[in-house]
Predict the 3D structure of the following.
Amino acid sequence: MPGIVLLLAAFYILTSIFSDNSVSEARWKIFAVALVVTVLLITISNANETLAGLAIACAVAALVAWLGLVFWIKVRMWQAVKIAGSYIGIAIGLSLVLALLLGSPTH
C-alpha cells in the first residue's frame, strides 16, 4: 500500500515539475492517469512475475501514461516522455528497494 501511494505522488510531482501546464487546472485528470498507470503496472507485473513481465508492464504503463498526458491532459510530447520515463524509473527503483526491505530472508 505505501508503494502505491508513493507512485501516485511521484507521478503528480513529476507532472508538476516537467509540465508547462498549470497542474491545479488538471489535478483530478493527473490523479486519474496516475491511478490507471499504477494499477496497470502492478497488475501486469504481478500476473507475470518474470523479468519479461516487468518489462512488458513498464512498456504498457509508459505508453498509457504518455497517451494520457498528451491527449487528455494536453502536455507536450517530449514533456510527456520525460514524465513517463521518470515515473517508470522511480517505479523500478521503488520496487527494488521494497523487495530488498520486505523480501523474505533466504535459509
Summary: The CA atoms of residues 66 and 81 lie 6 Å apart. The helical segments are 2-18, 27-47, 51-72, 77-102.
